[in-house]
Prior knowledge:
Layout: E1 4-5, E2 8-10, H1 13-17, H2 33-36, H3 53-56, H4 64-69, E3 81-87, H5 92-109, E4 113-115, E5 129-130, E6 139-141, H6 142-150, E7 158-165, E8 168-170, E9 175-177, E10 180-182, E11 188-192, H7 203-224, H8 243-248, H9 255-265, H10 269-283, H11 286-299
Parallel strand pairs: 1-9, 2-10, 3-4, 3-7, 6-8, 7-11
Antiparallel strand pairs: 5-6, 10-11
Helix pairs in contact: 5-7, 5-10, 10-11
Amino acid sequence: MNAKSNYCLTLIAMCVAGLLSAAEPDETLMLPPKYRKLLPLHEKLGEPRPGDWLTVQDEPGQTFRQYIRQKPVRADRRRRTIYVQPLGELPETKKKIVELTADFLAAYFQLPVKIREVVSLESVPEAAKRKPGKHRSEQILTTHVLYNILKPRLPRDAVTMIGITASDLWPGEGWNYVFGQASLGDRVGVWSFNRYGDPDRDEEAFKRCLLRTMKTAAHETGHMFSMRHCTLYQCNMCGCNHLGESDRRPLRLCPHCLAKLCHATGADPIKRFESLIEFYNKHGFEEEREFCEKSLELIKPTPIAKNVY
Length: 309
Ligand SMILES: [Zn+2]
Ligand SMILES: [Zn+2]
C-alpha cells in the first residue's frame, strides 16, 4: 500500500485536468491588468524541497483563463453566504479560534460568514471511522463528512459550507490523514484542528493554531470556489504535503488566485485589502498587514492630475 500523509486532497481535480488545454501562451497576459500590477510583490514557487507536495503529486496548475472557462462555483444574489459548520463540541479556546476564523473568512472572501449550531459526530457509522494506531486518535472518513453530513445540510443561501472538527480526518485507503479536504464542485469542505497543536498552552501556541486554521479554512474555501492548486507562486492555494510545508506557505493569494477569488465572489480587491488590513491590525498579524498595505498601494488607481490653467 502506498501510504501517504497529505495536506489536502481535491476530489475531482484529476478529472478536470484532462479537459484543460496543456499549455497557455502566457498566463500573465491572460491576467486582468489590475492584478498584473501586483506581480512584482510575489515570489515564484521555485523547486519543491524533498517530501513537498509537488514531489509526490503531478499538478497541472490552473491559469485564470482556464478557471473562467471551466465555469467555476460563484456567489450570486441567492447564494452568497459562507457557512462554518462545527462537527462535534469544541472546547472554548477552539470555539474562539473558529469565531476569529469566520471573521477572517468574511474579509478574505468579502462575503457574509455564519457559524451554525453544532452537529454531533456520534451517529457516524463504524465503516466511516478507523483507529490508525495505539497512540493515534480515531479518524473520521472525509467523504462521509462531505457527502453524508454536510451536503444534505447545505442551507438555501449557502454558496459554500465548511465543516470544522477536532477529530482527525482520513480520506480513504492509501492515505494516512488529511488536514482538510474540499470538493471543487459540490460546495462542501472540511478541516480539522487535530494536528495544529494545543492552543491552550500559551499565547504563541494560540496564535500559531489560529494562523494554521485560517490558512486551511481559506485554502479549502478556495477549492469550494473551484480553485485548483497554485503551481506558479508562493500562495495559500499551493498544495502542501506536511505541516512544515504548510507553515512555510503564506496566507496571501498570488495575483492569479486573487483574480479567481474576485471573479467567484464579486469582491472588489481594493476593499478586500482594506478589510484584511483591519483584521490583521486588530489581531496582530504584522507581516500580513504590511503585505496588504503594499498590495493596496500598487492596485489603487493612479489619481489623474488635474490640469491647472
Ligand atoms: Zn488543497
Ligand atoms: Zn496562487
